[in-house]
Amino acid sequence: MKKLLNTLYITQPDTYLSLDGDNIVLSRERERIGRLPLHNLESIVAFGYTGASPALMGYCAERNISISFLTMNGRFLARVIGKSRGNVVLRKQQYRVSDNEEGSAAIAKNFIVGKVYNHKWILERMTRDYPLRINVSDFKKVSGVLSLLIKEIRECDDLERLRGLEGQAATSYYNLFDNMILQQKDDFIFKGRSRRPPLDNVNAMLSFAYTLLANDMTSALEGVGLDAYVGFLHRDRPGRASLALDAMEELRGVYADRFVLSLINKKGVHGDDFLKKENGAVIMTDEARKNFLKAWQNKKQEKITHPFLGEKISWGLVPHVQASLLARFLRNDFDEYPPFLWK
Protein backbone atom coordinates (compact mmCIF):
# COMPACT_ATOMS: atom_id res chain seq x y z
CA MET A 1 0.00 0.00 0.00
CA LYS A 2 1.44 3.39 -1.03
CA LYS A 3 -0.13 6.84 -0.99
CA LEU A 4 1.17 9.33 -3.59
CA LEU A 5 -0.42 12.55 -4.91
CA ASN A 6 -3.65 11.76 -3.00
CA THR A 7 -3.81 8.40 -4.79
CA LEU A 8 -3.75 5.11 -2.89
CA TYR A 9 -1.86 2.34 -4.72
CA ILE A 10 -2.61 -1.19 -3.55
CA THR A 11 0.08 -3.49 -4.89
CA GLN A 12 -0.32 -6.53 -2.63
CA PRO A 13 -2.01 -9.42 -4.44
CA ASP A 14 -5.30 -10.97 -3.30
CA THR A 15 -6.43 -7.89 -1.38
CA TYR A 16 -10.11 -7.23 -0.69
CA LEU A 17 -11.28 -3.62 -0.29
CA SER A 18 -14.14 -2.65 2.00
CA LEU A 19 -15.61 0.31 3.86
CA ASP A 20 -15.57 1.02 7.58
CA GLY A 21 -17.12 4.38 8.38
CA ASP A 22 -15.09 6.93 6.39
CA ASN A 23 -12.15 4.57 5.96
CA ILE A 24 -11.02 2.05 3.38
CA VAL A 25 -10.06 -1.31 4.88
CA LEU A 26 -7.68 -3.74 3.20
CA SER A 27 -8.03 -7.44 3.98
CA ARG A 28 -6.32 -10.61 2.85
CA GLU A 29 -7.75 -14.02 3.66
CA ARG A 30 -10.20 -12.26 6.03
CA GLU A 31 -7.35 -10.71 8.00
CA ARG A 32 -7.20 -6.91 8.15
CA ILE A 33 -3.83 -5.65 6.81
CA GLY A 34 -4.48 -1.91 6.45
CA ARG A 35 -6.88 0.96 7.12
CA LEU A 36 -6.78 4.51 5.76
CA PRO A 37 -9.11 7.56 5.88
CA LEU A 38 -10.85 8.26 2.57
CA HIS A 39 -11.54 11.96 3.06
CA ASN A 40 -8.30 13.19 1.47
CA LEU A 41 -8.05 10.64 -1.35
CA GLU A 42 -8.77 11.46 -5.00
CA SER A 43 -8.34 7.96 -6.42
CA ILE A 44 -7.55 4.33 -5.61
CA VAL A 45 -5.54 2.03 -7.90
CA ALA A 46 -5.69 -1.68 -7.08
CA PHE A 47 -3.40 -4.25 -8.70
CA GLY A 48 -4.46 -7.88 -8.68
CA TYR A 49 -7.49 -7.25 -6.49
CA THR A 50 -9.76 -9.94 -5.02
CA GLY A 51 -12.74 -7.62 -4.95
CA ALA A 52 -14.29 -4.47 -3.54
CA SER A 53 -17.46 -4.10 -1.51
CA PRO A 54 -20.49 -2.35 -3.06
CA ALA A 55 -20.54 -0.08 -0.01
CA LEU A 56 -16.99 1.13 -0.72
CA MET A 57 -17.68 1.66 -4.43
CA GLY A 58 -20.88 3.57 -3.64
CA TYR A 59 -19.14 5.75 -1.05
CA CYS A 60 -16.31 6.57 -3.47
CA ALA A 61 -18.69 7.22 -6.38
CA GLU A 62 -20.66 9.75 -4.34
CA ARG A 63 -17.48 11.59 -3.38
CA ASN A 64 -15.84 11.50 -6.83
CA ILE A 65 -13.06 9.10 -5.71
CA SER A 66 -12.27 6.84 -8.66
CA ILE A 67 -11.29 3.18 -8.19
CA SER A 68 -9.18 1.61 -10.95
CA PHE A 69 -8.68 -2.15 -11.16
CA LEU A 70 -5.62 -3.61 -12.91
CA THR A 71 -4.10 -7.07 -13.13
CA MET A 72 -0.85 -7.73 -11.27
CA ASN A 73 0.90 -7.32 -14.63
CA GLY A 74 -0.52 -3.80 -14.92
CA ARG A 75 -3.19 -4.44 -17.58
CA PHE A 76 -6.13 -2.07 -17.18
CA LEU A 77 -9.42 -3.83 -16.38
CA ALA A 78 -11.98 -1.25 -15.26
CA ARG A 79 -12.51 2.09 -13.59
CA VAL A 80 -15.38 2.81 -11.22
CA ILE A 81 -16.41 6.47 -11.02
CA GLY A 82 -19.46 8.41 -9.97
CA LYS A 83 -20.96 11.30 -11.92
CA SER A 84 -18.68 12.03 -14.83
CA ARG A 85 -18.18 15.72 -14.16
CA GLY A 86 -14.52 15.46 -13.16
CA ASN A 87 -13.59 13.06 -15.93
CA VAL A 88 -15.36 15.07 -18.60
CA VAL A 89 -13.66 18.32 -17.56
CA LEU A 90 -10.24 16.67 -17.63
CA ARG A 91 -10.74 15.02 -21.00
CA LYS A 92 -12.22 18.14 -22.59
CA GLN A 93 -9.14 20.05 -21.50
CA GLN A 94 -6.94 17.28 -22.92
CA TYR A 95 -8.77 17.50 -26.27
CA ARG A 96 -8.53 21.30 -26.33
CA VAL A 97 -4.78 21.21 -25.74
CA SER A 98 -4.31 18.42 -28.29
CA ASP A 99 -6.10 20.50 -30.94
CA ASN A 100 -3.81 23.46 -30.22
CA GLU A 101 -0.31 23.24 -31.73
CA GLU A 102 1.25 25.64 -29.24
CA GLY A 103 -0.36 23.95 -26.24
CA SER A 104 0.64 20.51 -27.52
CA ALA A 105 4.23 21.65 -28.04
CA ALA A 106 4.43 22.97 -24.47
CA ILE A 107 3.74 19.47 -23.13
CA ALA A 108 5.51 17.52 -25.87
CA LYS A 109 8.80 19.30 -25.34
CA ASN A 110 8.84 18.24 -21.69
CA PHE A 111 8.31 14.62 -22.72
CA ILE A 112 11.28 14.97 -25.09
CA VAL A 113 13.42 16.83 -22.55
CA GLY A 114 12.88 13.92 -20.17
CA LYS A 115 13.82 11.41 -22.86
CA VAL A 116 17.01 13.17 -23.96
CA TYR A 117 18.05 13.98 -20.39
CA ASN A 118 17.69 10.34 -19.40
CA HIS A 119 19.62 9.20 -22.48
CA LYS A 120 22.41 11.60 -21.53
CA TRP A 121 22.67 10.17 -18.02
CA ILE A 122 22.61 6.59 -19.28
CA LEU A 123 25.76 7.50 -21.23
CA GLU A 124 27.27 9.33 -18.26
CA ARG A 125 26.57 6.33 -16.01
CA MET A 126 28.45 4.12 -18.49
CA THR A 127 31.52 6.37 -18.32
CA ARG A 128 31.43 6.15 -14.53
CA ASP A 129 30.84 2.41 -14.24
CA TYR A 130 32.85 1.07 -17.19
CA PRO A 131 35.64 3.54 -18.01
CA LEU A 132 38.02 0.76 -19.08
CA ARG A 133 35.52 -1.04 -21.33
CA ILE A 134 34.20 1.84 -23.42
CA ASN A 135 35.64 4.82 -25.27
CA VAL A 136 34.93 7.49 -22.64
CA SER A 137 35.77 10.29 -25.08
CA ASP A 138 33.04 9.16 -27.52
CA PHE A 139 30.47 8.94 -24.74
CA LYS A 140 31.36 12.36 -23.33
CA LYS A 141 31.15 13.88 -26.80
CA VAL A 142 27.63 12.56 -27.40
CA SER A 143 26.62 13.56 -23.85
CA GLY A 144 27.67 17.11 -24.69
CA VAL A 145 25.64 17.03 -27.91
CA LEU A 146 22.57 15.89 -25.96
CA SER A 147 23.05 18.72 -23.45
CA LEU A 148 22.97 21.26 -26.30
CA LEU A 149 19.89 19.61 -27.80
CA ILE A 150 18.08 19.78 -24.44
CA LYS A 151 18.57 23.56 -24.43
CA GLU A 152 17.16 23.82 -27.97
CA ILE A 153 14.22 21.61 -27.09
CA ARG A 154 13.38 23.72 -24.03
CA GLU A 155 13.15 26.83 -26.23
CA CYS A 156 11.22 25.20 -29.09
CA ASP A 157 7.49 25.78 -29.54
CA ASP A 158 7.01 24.07 -32.91
CA LEU A 159 5.95 20.41 -33.05
CA GLU A 160 7.73 19.61 -36.31
CA ARG A 161 10.95 21.18 -35.06
CA LEU A 162 10.59 19.22 -31.81
CA ARG A 163 10.29 15.98 -33.76
CA GLY A 164 13.43 16.89 -35.69
CA LEU A 165 15.41 17.62 -32.52
CA GLU A 166 14.18 14.40 -30.93
CA GLY A 167 15.30 12.52 -34.02
CA GLN A 168 18.78 14.06 -33.84
CA ALA A 169 19.09 13.12 -30.17
CA ALA A 170 17.89 9.55 -30.80
CA THR A 171 20.39 9.07 -33.64
CA SER A 172 23.28 10.27 -31.47
CA TYR A 173 22.22 8.01 -28.61
CA TYR A 174 21.66 4.89 -30.72
CA ASN A 175 25.06 5.38 -32.37
CA LEU A 176 26.55 4.34 -29.01
CA PHE A 177 24.02 1.67 -28.10
CA ASP A 178 26.15 -1.20 -29.40
CA ASN A 179 29.05 0.02 -27.22
CA MET A 180 26.86 -0.49 -24.13
CA ILE A 181 26.54 -4.19 -24.94
CA LEU A 182 29.48 -5.57 -22.98
CA GLN A 183 28.79 -9.31 -23.10
CA GLN A 184 27.80 -11.91 -25.73
CA LYS A 185 28.89 -9.68 -28.59
CA ASP A 186 28.65 -12.48 -31.16
CA ASP A 187 24.93 -12.94 -30.54
CA PHE A 188 23.91 -9.38 -29.67
CA ILE A 189 24.99 -6.77 -32.20
CA PHE A 190 23.13 -3.48 -32.63
CA LYS A 191 23.61 -1.69 -35.97
CA GLY A 192 20.58 0.55 -35.72
CA ARG A 193 16.92 0.56 -34.78
CA SER A 194 14.68 -1.72 -36.87
CA ARG A 195 11.02 -1.90 -35.91
CA ARG A 196 8.57 -3.58 -38.27
CA PRO A 197 9.92 -6.15 -38.26
CA PRO A 198 12.90 -6.23 -35.85
CA LEU A 199 15.86 -7.64 -37.76
CA ASP A 200 18.17 -8.75 -34.96
CA ASN A 201 18.08 -10.10 -31.40
CA VAL A 202 18.56 -6.71 -29.74
CA ASN A 203 15.78 -5.02 -31.72
CA ALA A 204 13.45 -7.94 -31.02
CA MET A 205 13.88 -7.32 -27.27
CA LEU A 206 13.66 -3.53 -27.58
CA SER A 207 10.41 -3.77 -29.53
CA PHE A 208 8.92 -6.16 -26.99
CA ALA A 209 10.01 -3.97 -24.06
CA TYR A 210 8.56 -0.85 -25.71
CA THR A 211 5.26 -2.70 -26.26
CA LEU A 212 5.11 -3.69 -22.60
CA LEU A 213 5.93 -0.14 -21.51
CA ALA A 214 3.25 1.29 -23.84
CA ASN A 215 0.68 -1.09 -22.33
CA ASP A 216 1.69 -0.07 -18.80
CA MET A 217 1.45 3.61 -19.72
CA THR A 218 -1.95 3.13 -21.38
CA SER A 219 -3.27 1.55 -18.18
CA ALA A 220 -1.83 4.37 -16.09
CA LEU A 221 -3.42 7.08 -18.25
CA GLU A 222 -6.82 5.35 -18.30
CA GLY A 223 -6.52 4.95 -14.54
CA VAL A 224 -6.38 8.73 -13.97
CA GLY A 225 -9.18 9.44 -16.44
CA LEU A 226 -7.17 10.58 -19.47
CA ASP A 227 -7.78 9.39 -23.01
CA ALA A 228 -4.72 7.32 -23.94
CA TYR A 229 -5.55 7.66 -27.65
CA VAL A 230 -5.36 11.47 -27.90
CA GLY A 231 -1.78 12.71 -27.79
CA PHE A 232 0.24 15.88 -28.10
CA LEU A 233 3.45 14.82 -29.87
CA HIS A 234 2.04 11.75 -31.63
CA ARG A 235 -1.02 12.91 -33.52
CA ASP A 236 -4.32 11.06 -33.76
CA ARG A 237 -4.38 7.81 -35.69
CA PRO A 238 -7.13 5.15 -35.43
CA GLY A 239 -6.13 2.38 -33.05
CA ARG A 240 -2.94 4.07 -31.83
CA ALA A 241 -2.57 5.01 -28.15
CA SER A 242 -0.91 8.32 -29.04
CA LEU A 243 -0.80 9.79 -25.52
CA ALA A 244 0.72 6.56 -24.17
CA LEU A 245 3.44 6.81 -26.83
CA ASP A 246 4.00 10.45 -25.82
CA ALA A 247 4.21 9.80 -22.10
CA MET A 248 6.47 6.76 -22.41
CA GLU A 249 9.14 8.69 -24.35
CA GLU A 250 10.91 9.83 -21.18
CA LEU A 251 10.95 6.23 -19.89
CA ARG A 252 12.14 4.43 -23.03
CA GLY A 253 15.85 4.66 -22.26
CA VAL A 254 15.93 4.59 -18.49
CA TYR A 255 13.27 1.88 -18.14
CA ALA A 256 13.19 -0.29 -21.29
CA ASP A 257 16.67 0.16 -22.81
CA ARG A 258 18.52 -0.37 -19.54
CA PHE A 259 16.37 -3.43 -18.86
CA VAL A 260 17.35 -4.98 -22.21
CA LEU A 261 21.02 -4.09 -21.77
CA SER A 262 20.98 -5.62 -18.29
CA LEU A 263 19.49 -8.87 -19.58
CA ILE A 264 22.22 -9.15 -22.20
CA ASN A 265 25.14 -8.08 -20.01
CA LYS A 266 24.06 -10.28 -17.09
CA LYS A 267 23.46 -13.20 -19.48
CA GLY A 268 19.80 -13.49 -18.62
CA VAL A 269 19.18 -14.10 -22.33
CA HIS A 270 21.16 -16.02 -24.94
CA GLY A 271 21.51 -16.29 -28.70
CA ASP A 272 19.48 -19.50 -28.92
CA ASP A 273 16.49 -17.69 -27.39
CA PHE A 274 15.69 -16.21 -30.82
CA LEU A 275 14.28 -17.42 -34.13
CA LYS A 276 14.68 -15.87 -37.57
CA LYS A 277 11.68 -16.08 -39.92
CA GLU A 278 11.73 -16.28 -43.70
CA ASN A 279 11.03 -12.55 -44.09
CA GLY A 280 14.07 -11.69 -41.93
CA ALA A 281 12.08 -10.88 -38.81
CA VAL A 282 13.64 -11.99 -35.53
CA ILE A 283 11.37 -13.15 -32.71
CA MET A 284 11.90 -14.61 -29.26
CA THR A 285 11.04 -18.22 -28.55
CA ASP A 286 8.01 -18.86 -26.35
CA GLU A 287 10.22 -19.82 -23.42
CA ALA A 288 12.40 -16.73 -23.85
CA ARG A 289 9.32 -14.53 -23.93
CA LYS A 290 8.08 -16.07 -20.67
CA ASN A 291 11.46 -15.45 -19.03
CA PHE A 292 11.49 -11.88 -20.39
CA LEU A 293 8.06 -11.19 -18.90
CA LYS A 294 9.09 -12.65 -15.56
CA ALA A 295 12.21 -10.45 -15.46
CA TRP A 296 10.08 -7.43 -16.50
CA GLN A 297 7.71 -8.02 -13.60
CA ASN A 298 10.66 -8.35 -11.21
CA LYS A 299 12.08 -5.08 -12.53
CA LYS A 300 8.80 -3.35 -11.74
CA GLN A 301 9.17 -4.30 -8.08
CA GLU A 302 12.59 -2.62 -7.71
CA LYS A 303 12.56 0.56 -5.62
CA ILE A 304 13.76 4.00 -6.74
CA THR A 305 13.43 7.51 -5.37
CA HIS A 306 11.08 9.48 -7.61
CA PRO A 307 12.99 12.62 -8.69
CA PHE A 308 9.99 14.97 -8.43
CA LEU A 309 8.22 13.54 -5.40
CA GLY A 310 11.37 12.63 -3.48
CA GLU A 311 9.68 9.43 -2.26
CA LYS A 312 10.68 5.80 -2.68
CA ILE A 313 8.37 3.90 -5.05
CA SER A 314 8.64 0.83 -7.25
CA TRP A 315 9.53 1.16 -10.94
CA GLY A 316 6.11 -0.26 -11.76
CA LEU A 317 4.40 2.78 -10.23
CA VAL A 318 6.41 5.32 -12.23
CA PRO A 319 3.99 5.36 -15.22
CA HIS A 320 1.08 5.86 -12.81
CA VAL A 321 2.78 8.74 -11.00
CA GLN A 322 3.67 10.43 -14.31
CA ALA A 323 0.08 10.00 -15.52
CA SER A 324 -1.15 11.64 -12.29
CA LEU A 325 1.29 14.52 -12.75
CA LEU A 326 0.10 15.02 -16.33
CA ALA A 327 -3.54 15.06 -15.20
CA ARG A 328 -2.69 17.60 -12.50
CA PHE A 329 -0.94 19.82 -15.02
CA LEU A 330 -4.00 19.73 -17.28
CA ARG A 331 -6.08 20.73 -14.24
CA ASN A 332 -3.72 23.72 -13.76
CA ASP A 333 -2.19 22.41 -10.52
CA PHE A 334 1.31 22.91 -12.01
CA ASP A 335 2.82 25.57 -14.24
CA GLU A 336 4.28 22.84 -16.47
CA TYR A 337 4.34 19.06 -16.68
CA PRO A 338 7.28 17.68 -14.64
CA PRO A 339 9.04 14.94 -16.65
CA PHE A 340 10.77 11.98 -15.05
CA LEU A 341 14.43 13.03 -14.84
CA TRP A 342 16.65 10.10 -13.84
CA LYS A 343 20.26 10.42 -12.75
Helix content: 40-55%
Summed up, the domain count is 2
What name does CATH use for the topology of the largest domain? Four Helix Bundle (Hemerythrin (Met), subunit A)
Radius of gyration, Cα only, in angstroms?
21 Å
GO molecular function: DNA binding; DNA endonuclease activity; hydrolase activity; metal ion binding
Pfam families: Cas_Cas1
Enzyme class: hydrolase
Binding site for Mn(2+): 166, 234, 249
Kindly describe this structure.
The chain has about 350 residues and is of the alpha/beta class. It has 2 domains: about 1-85, CRISPR-associated endonuclease Cas1, N-terminal domain (Ribosomal Protein L15, Chain: K, domain 2), CATH 3.100.10.20; about 90-330, Up-down Bundle (Four Helix Bundle (Hemerythrin (Met), subunit A)), CATH 1.20.120.920. Helix content is about 50%, strand content about 15%. It contains 9 helices and 13 strands. The chain has helices at about 55-60, 85-100, 100-130, 135-155, 160-175, 200-225, 240-265, 285-300, 320-330; strands spanning about 1-5, 5-10, 15-20, 25-30, 30-35, 45, 50, 65-70, 75-80, 275, 280-285, 305, 310-315. Strands 1-2-6-8-9 form a 5-stranded mixed β-sheet, sandwiched between helices. Strands 5-4-3-7 form a 4-stranded mixed β-sheet. Strand 1 and strand 2 (about 5-10) form a beta hairpin. Helix 6 (about 200-225) crosses helix 9 (about 320-330). It is globular.
